[in-house]
Amino acid sequence: MTDEDLDRIARGYREFVAEAQPTSPLYAELAGHVAGSERVLRFLAGLPVGKRQPNLLLAALQFLDGAPADGAELERRITEDGDRVRATVLARATQTNEPARCGALLPVLARLAGPLTLIEVGASAGLCLYPDRYGYDYDGVQVGPTDSLRIRVETSGGVPVPSAVPEVAARIGIDLNPLDPTDPGDRDWLRALVWPGPVAEERLARLDTAAEVAAREPATLLAGDLVDRLPDALDLAAPGSTVVVMHTAVLPYVPGDVRARFAEAVAGLPVRWLAQEPPGAVPGTGERPADGWGKEFVVSLDRRPLARSAPHGGRLDWLDGDPR
Description:
Blueprint: H1 3-20, H2 25-35, H3 38-45, H4 54-65, H5 71-80, H6 82-91, H7 102-109, E1 116-121, E2 135-138, E3 141-143, E4 150-156, E5 168-175, H8 184-192, H9 200-216, E6 220-223, H10 230-235, E7 242-248, H11 256-267, E8 272-277, E9 297-301, E10 304-309, E11 315-318
Parallel strand pairs: 1-5, 1-7, 2-4, 4-11, 5-6, 7-8
Antiparallel strand pairs: 2-3, 8-9, 9-10, 10-11
């Protein structure tokens, strides 16, 4: 372990401060404390490189005993209960499932020729595989079921709001460690991944409702690498359907070489590629911001940027073009 290692980890936590501040001032405060704490930085440096990110550490703390009230409590818990925190971080992964992101995907999905087979990589519990089972409110325009989860979206730029939800014939997810929406422990972990803050209560209620939808109509979830399991997922596609490989907020957690292999693999398949990721994560969607992964996502179809969206849903700014 070198000072350079500690500086690199601290830099990542300082970048996270700006990302978290608008929706979770507490997490911004905690990340700032970590960035200045040699003790916590050394704890993180003792973890595998892929297990050091702020989202995972803070979720593990919240999962075990609730979010720390301040930096001093975080430091104390790392000092006194580090073994349990370490075990949780090693056993778990950042697998946020935010069904509100379907509000950004629906205008694209509804314009594709149906029925659809949805293949979500980095699916977690698969809650974004049910865009046809949720209801939507686009600036007062109602779409979809009225007796289910309601997803509200503020729009600009002429979003092509659909008149109906698409027909989905098959739902398939791929994840290194798929979560079961019927399992209490997995549900608790999904809840722990929601950042505490002004919108946390709304997000948790949305998560619980979406998990009930998924539990009633289980998707097919495949465990494994997003590149290796793609052929298996394709074998499960509904005959005669349009196959859509989709993902939201997944690629920043994937090593760069694997991202490149994934992009090459999808480009060679007879599928549509729908992504909601930070700029630059998908080839052709801009450059990665200097301050980490930025504060907004790009919605793209087959590498063509169509819109910008809020990371956790709720806002969709259309750029240009017909999503077909």
